[in-house]
Amino acid sequence: MGLSIQGFVTVLVAFISLSVALYLRIFPHRVSGDELGVDHWFWKAYVETYRRERHFPPTLPQYILDEEQWYPPLFPLFLTRLPRIIFNDYNHLLATLIDLIRMLLMLYFTGLLTDWNPWALGAAGLSYATTPILISYNIQLNPRGLGALFLDGLIVLCFWLLLMGGSTWLLLPILLLSGCILLTHKMTTQLFWFLCLVGAFWVNKWFLTLIPASVLIAMILSRGFYWKVLRAHWDIVSFWHRNWRWLQAHPIKESPIYGEAGYETPTKMHRKGLPGLVRHLRYLLGYHPGVWMLCMVVAGGLIPLEANETIWIVGWTAFILSFASLTVFVPWMKCLGSGYFYLYNAAFPAALLWGVAVSLVEMNLLVMIYFIITVALNLISIAAFSQKLRFSKTQKTDQHFGSLLNYLRNAPKGSVMCLPPQWYDRVAYETGQPVLYGGHGFGFMLLESVFPRLLVPIREIVERYYIRYLITIDGYLPANFVSDLVCETVRDFGAYRLFLLTCDSAESEQPNE
């Protein structure tokens, strides 16, 4: 028998939602051209090196300030298993593909909870499709989407086990997913453990056992490699515990050596006073406007909360928002990463809750107004991101920067310093030159002298790391820093400058530490 009318409409709504999501995720690539997020180039180098040398973890000597590549291994190993043509030609779309798989899971679960109500699927799909952080972050290769997919799947299975009478055999995939989260993404691991803690108090003490169980499973699955991942995890958390005040600070103008007294970088993540508060609120609201509109809907009593399923989804969403807010505003928790990025994980339950809300209230006018405002705010935020990507001098480069990279590609071997630091990964990948950077695995003690602020005089840095090239852009470096450089010449590439530096050490020597 063919599909019923409702079934046909449901399939059509799901298809339209996925099509909207795909278009919005491809759109930034049309705006940015060849520009991709900074992590993209690192992952390409990681995968290509592993495929070439067949050694795990791969050694990436081009990153002078990395000791070991002790990153959670599941995502890069997944990439290495892909056919070469897919990775080589479509690597910029892989994060989008994972995100669409996550969206399919969300739509399927929404259908189960709402008896495949087309309006519910449409609301859930449109909410997820237009969530700004999913579009802005997935412009690059990244493991966050895979980690989020594992976490969403684990929570859905727990939902099925505890509320829908599922078999105790579900504990096996739950435990497997818990270990996979730890082997995929560190920030998702932190959120997962937080949800286990609050879930133990709110739902069932059994959730607390998932924390040690996840570590055990990760150790077994990785044959002990997770111990190194855990050390690297502590390394980055302790680094940002010392340095969170300078996240996204200007490395020279806020340097204790070259900085200007009282200067604060306008784009710094944690600015002091009212500017800092405004920035935090702007990011929290802008990355995911829909989830905050949902808070207003729930607080206004517009969603019936009699059903345990609805309460569960509200709690799931609320606890993620709580963790995001804590890591933004509580000083000792700021080392757990930029809290706005946890809104990435809120996209699934928020979309699910929009779908359930629409199915429960049956076209309630006020709820529909809130939803329309949500989609409008999402689209405004996406447009703002696209404009920033189009005109940013550091996120989007031009043909002159390409000429600079081509020059370095054919220049004598020498370590490269980049100011601003956003260019390090691309420079390392496209030129083959070693760069004064790290922070991808283990070795943050090495990185701390130059990032997030320069703590050592530039002449000492040049001598210590045999720096031969310094890349910058007009107006970025203060005069007192430039006067401290000893250089042979400066080459101009449009607005970009390449300083050819001199040092007393032999140019042929290259550091690996």
Keyphrases for this structure?
4-stranded mixed β-sheet, 513 residues, 2 domains, 22 helices, alpha/beta, two-stranded parallel sheet, 6 strands
* Cα-based radius of gyration, to the nearest Å: 24 Å
DSSP strand count: 6
Secondary-structure element order, N to C: HHEHHHHHHHHHHHHHHHHEHEHHEHEE
Number of domains: 2
Query: Percent of residues in helical segments?
Result: 55-70%
Oligomeric state, counting identical vs distinct chains: single chain
Low-confidence stretches: 505-513
Share in β-strands: 5-15%
Main sheet attributes: strand count, strand direction, barrel closure: 4 strands, mixed
If strands are numbered along the chain, what order do they take across the biggest sheet?
2-4-6-5
Name the shape in a single word. globular
Q: Helical stretch count?
A: 22
By secondary-structure content and strand pairing, the structural class works out as alpha/beta
State the distance separating the first and last CA atoms: 67 Å
Question: Average pLDDT across residues?
Answer: 91
Can you give a write-up of this model?
The protein starts with a helix and ends in a 12-residue tail after the last strand. Mean pLDDT is 91; it is low at 505-513. Helix 5 runs parallel beside helix 8 (144-163) and helix 9 crosses helix 11 (210-221). Strand 5 and strand 6 (496-501) form a beta hairpin. The chain is an alpha/beta fold. The protein has helices spanning 5-32, 38-53, 74-80, 84-90, 94-114, 118-129, 132-137, 144-163, 171-182, 186-202, 210-221, 226-243, 273-287, 289-299, 308-329, 343-361, 365-391, 399-409, 424-431, 444-447, 458-465, 479-482; strands at 63-65, 415-418, 435-438, 467-473, 487-493, 496-501. The chain has 22 helices and six strands. The protein has a four-stranded mixed β-sheet with strand order 2-4-6-5.
